[in-house]
Design brief:
alpha+beta, single chain, three-stranded antiparallel β-sheet, 13% strand
Length: 343
């Protein structure tokens, strides 16, 4: 890969205009060529997409750039070869971009980018170092690739009942919702004392918390109303509401206490770092498990995604095996082989 990486580094560093580059063919795929310039353009685009700035001044020996290119180039080569194969297959099937389709896409591009005049559109193309012919060629290739993938691969993928059942059984946790609890709280805060625990203040706060509980449990007062009036917690703004909370997200001690309660029960005051907390169990939900029928749509999407990747790989292996691929650079060939292993 060193020769290819070095070529890209030199091109990026020197910013050589495309017209001055002496073309070097890297690979031929059924007679269609992929050049050093094509590779360098894709490398730059990939680095931009990853958000990697090409700050060559702070990297005079191009160490970071070489590393980044080593990481992205194998997949770039694979994608380039596969794209050529897919476009060639699409042309065999008669796919092409009509004038009407091209005009519709261009109109959408102008609308989305708020480009009102032809001069603005041409300026935008020029800023991307593209011509209208380049744009049409790129759009057509993209359209052909998508149609081949849809018609030759995805349209032939079906999810059987047995596959759906197998996925459901193996991923039951994905379709299971843990129980939730909804609580109300009234907090009696204990004042911080730099000298340590103030026993008198602790006892007074505890007695106040117990009295609040008595007012609710035996006096019949409304817990929510009391929480909104006397609680020292910010939750007083919501009448002491806490939750709903997943039982998986609460402490074991609190979970153990809640297990002994039923909705409407008010627990004995518990000491917290903030003070004494009086808790009421408002509601509790049981563990909920989606049935296979309820989960079928989600299952189909997930199984389809896995099958699509596997079937697409098989399809591309078939196209590669049938193609005449002539490697003109050993480094590029090694990068392709590495990329296919990664994929």
């Amino acid at each position: 890969m060193k020769k290819i990486v070095l070529a890209a580094v030199l091109s990026l560093a020197a910013a050589v205009p495309r017209a001055e580059i002496i073309e070097q063919i890297l690979v031929k795929v059924n007679g269609e060529i992929f050049t050093k310039s094509d590779l360098e353009q894709r490398q730059v685009a990939a680095l931009r997409q990853k958000g990697q700035a090409l700050d060559l001044k702070s990297d005079p020996n191009n160490v970071q750039l070489r590393k980044a290119l080593d990481e992205i180039t194998p997949q770039i080569i694979v994608d380039a070869v596969d794209e050529m194969l897919l476009v060639q297959r699409g042309r065999e099937l008669g796919y092409k971009l009509s004038d009407e389709q091209f005009k519709s896409v261009v109109d959408n591009i102008r609308k989305e980018n708020k480009i009102e005049s032809e001069e603005q559109f041409q300026a935008a193309l020029k800023s991307e170092n593209m011509t209208m012919a380049d744009l049409r060629r790129n759009l057509e290739r993209s359209m052909i690739v998508q149609r081949v993938q849809q018609n030759e691969v995805m349209a032939k993928i079906a999810i059987t009942d047995d596959e759906a059942r197998a996925y459901y059984d193996a991923h039951m946790n994905e379709f299971t919702t843990a129980p939730t609890v909804t609580l109300r709280e009234i907090l009696v805060a204990t004042p911080a004392d730099p000298k340590g625990v103030n026993v008198a203040a602790e006892d007074a706060a505890l007695e106040k918390a117990k009295e609040i509980r008595r007012r609710v449990t035996t006096g019949g007062e409304n817990f929510q109303k009391l929480a909104g009036e006397i609680s020292d917690s910010p939750s007083k703004a919501n009448a002491g509401l806490i939750g709903p909370l997943s039982v998986n997200d609460i402490s074991p001690d609190l979970r153990k206490m809640i297990e002994k309660m039923k909705p409407g029960d008010v627990a004995e005051p518990v000491r917290t770092p903030r003070g004494f907390q009086v808790l009421k169990l408002d509601a509790i939900t049981a563990t909920q498990v989606m049935s296979l029928d309820q989960a079928r749509e989600q299952i189909s999407e997930r199984v389809f995604t896995d099958k699509r990747k596997a079937e697409f790989q098989k399809y591309m292996q078939k196209l590669r095996a049938q193609a005449i691929i002539e490697w003109k650079n050993p480094d590029v060939k090694r990068a392709f082989e590495e990329g296919t292993k990664q994929g």
